[in-house]
Design a protein that fits this description.
CATH architecture of the domain at 3-240: 2-Layer Sandwich
CATH topology of the domain at 3-240: Nucleotidyltransferase, domain 5
CATH superfamily of the domain at 3-240: ATPase, nucleotide binding domain
Helix content: 25-40%
Largest sheet: 7 strands, mixed
Oligomer: single chain
Number of helices: 17
Strand content: 15-25%
Distance between the termini: 42 Å
Radius of gyration: 22 Å
Length: 505
């Protein structure tokens, strides 16, 4: 029986998940890394780190009992969306990748609206210009690093750089590409109109494929360093959120997916292109399917920041225990999770994180609980924006934060909805493996594969704390408008003078 490998190149780690032909997860390999913030609001990473971590994660699989990499029949790829990878004509990396949570490009977003027209931009892509998307990053390099820009021959998304290293082929999938702000949502391909309007070279952008279509095969050099067989099929895959949707079974409107990863995402599939501001609209990894998405930039990433920066002597289980001793509402303490700006519902790269209501009675447990509650409030923002499209949907939650039973209970109470867990925390990598299995012919469709593979866990019902959370949420909603101008003034005050650095990565 063939095995199927899903590789997830996320912001903080690459995960390699091995699935058998019946959908059972056999093993997971993981290799962690950091990203850099060389200036306020910047976020960068070397693509070479992803490839090294991919090799390491796959090799880690091979050390686990019963794993035979020679039995892998196909590979699927997923990873962080919107990142900008620039290559020269010899396919060498020109500079560190600019990541999804980078917020330096507000001027370029304004330029895109001016050149295209805001309404026309949304009509084509389903989205307004946002600093997180890929297109404004390209324009920033044009404006601030002209020497680099003159050398550009290829533009890739993060997981597609890993594909290049595996297969020596330039390719992309339609779901991930629809998050670049250069994609025609309805036509499911690059928009010639937008590429021309922004004076970009159409030859920079690779062929796009549906998620389970074959995009290449493992090359000789990649086989040597990974242990995979030369010639193994590599399918197109998907951006992390579309792959996560597949991994939790959100491939039709009957299922709503919530991801508690580094970022927080509310993901609702539809059988037609949908545009609903301020939500984002993208192609799904399933042919003939699209999705709406609300994104908060720091979800589980907020709790990781809190642990690393404020409570380094505590692990996550310890923080859970302390937070569980605190009553809902954290004794009047509210956390704003805008640590890297925000996207939904406030498209504001200058938004800042904050604890509001601190007193001497608040301890580590209060702060930890308020972080969890603040993230749940941010997710509720997106759920309320798409509520008429999710009536009766099965709400499934995944991601690293979903390991915390307390956090899932808080989320159910804040939303006032039952929440279903899934039995893998690596649902994006699982989704990539499912797409690989479909591409290899193990299943007739993605929907059929999801029915066979996705295992749901407990259903967490709301308890009697919803009234307390409704009150706290109403205050939370008032805080951003009250602080918005202050955030912008703070952002203006901490900007550093630009320095020229045209050296390649």
């Amino acid at each position: 029986m063939s095995l199927y490998l899903g590789i997830d190149t996320s912001t903080t780690a690459t995960k390699a998940l091995l699935m058998d032909g019946d959908g059972g997860v056999i093993a997971i390999g993981r290799s962690e890394y950091e990203f850099q913030t060389p200036r306020p609001l910047w976020s960068e990473q070397s693509p070479h780190v992803w490839w090294a971590a991919t090799i390491d994660a796959i090799r880690h699989l091979s050390t686990q009992p019963g794993v035979d990499l020679g039995s892998v029949g196909a590979v699927g790829l997923t990873g962080q969306m919107h990142g900008l990878v620039l290559l020269d004509q010899t396919r060498q990396v020109l500079r560190p990748a600019i990541l999804w949570n980078d917020q330096r490009t507000q001027a370029q977003c304004d330029e895109i609206r001016s050149r295209v027209g805001r309404e026309r931009l949304i009509q084509i892509t389903g989205n307004d210009a946002s600093a997180g998307f890929t297109a404004p990053k390209i324009l920033w390099v044009r404006d601030d690093e002209p020497e680099v820009y003159r050398q550009v021959s290829h533009v890739l998304l993060p997981k597609d750089y890993v594909r290049l290293m595996l297969t020596d082929r330039l390719a992309a999938d339609k779901a991930d590409s629809s998050g670049t702000l250069l994609f025609d949502l309805a036509k499911r391909d690059w928009s010639a109109e937008l590429i021309e309007a922004l004076d970009l070279d159409p030859r920079w952008f690779p062929e796009t494929l549906e998620g389970s279509e074959v995009a290449g095969h493992i090359g000789k050099s990649a086989a040597k360093v990974t242990g995979l067989r030369e010639g193994v099929t590599v399918v197109a895959g998907a951006g992390d959120q579309a792959a996560n949707g597949v991994g939790v079974g959100a491939v039709s409107p009957e299922v709503l997916a919530i991801s508690l990863g580094t970022s927080g995402v509310v993901f609702a599939p539809f059988d037609r292109p949908m545009v609903r501001e301020p939500l984002q609209a993208f192609c799904h990894a399933v042919p003939g399917t699209w999705h709406l998405m609300g994104v908060m930039l720091s979800a589980a990433g907020s709790l990781r920041w809190f642990r690393d920066s404020i409570a380094p002597d505590h692990d996550y289980d310890g923080l859970d225990r302390l937070a569980e001793e605190v009553k809902p509402g954290a004794d009047g303490l509210i956390f704003l999770p805008y640590l890297t700006g925000e996207r939904t519902p406030h498209s504001d790269p200058t938004a800042r994180g904050a604890f509001v209501g601190l007193t001497v009675r608040h301890g580590i447990g209060h702060l930890a609980r308020s972080v969890m509650e603040g993230v749940a409030f941010g997710l509720r923002d997106s759920v309320e924006l798409m509520e008429d499209g999710i009536q009766g949907a099965d709400v499934r939650v995944s991601g690293g934060g979903a390991v915390s039973r307390l956090w899932i209970q808080i989320l159910a109470n804040v939303l006032g909805l039952p929440v279903t867990t899934v039995k893998t925390t690596e649902s994006a990598a699982l989704g990539a493996a499912v797409l690989a299995a479909v591409g290899d012919g193990a299943f007739a469709s993605v929907a059929e594969a999801c029915d066979a593979v996705v295992e749901t866990g407990d259903v967490i019902e709301p308890t009697g704390d919803s009234d307390a959370y409704d009150h706290a949420y109403s205050i939370y909603r008032d805080l951003y408008p009250a602080l918005r101008d202050k955030f912008r003034r703070l952002s203006d005050s901490d900007r550093e003078p630009a320095e020229s650095d045209d050296s390649p990565d």
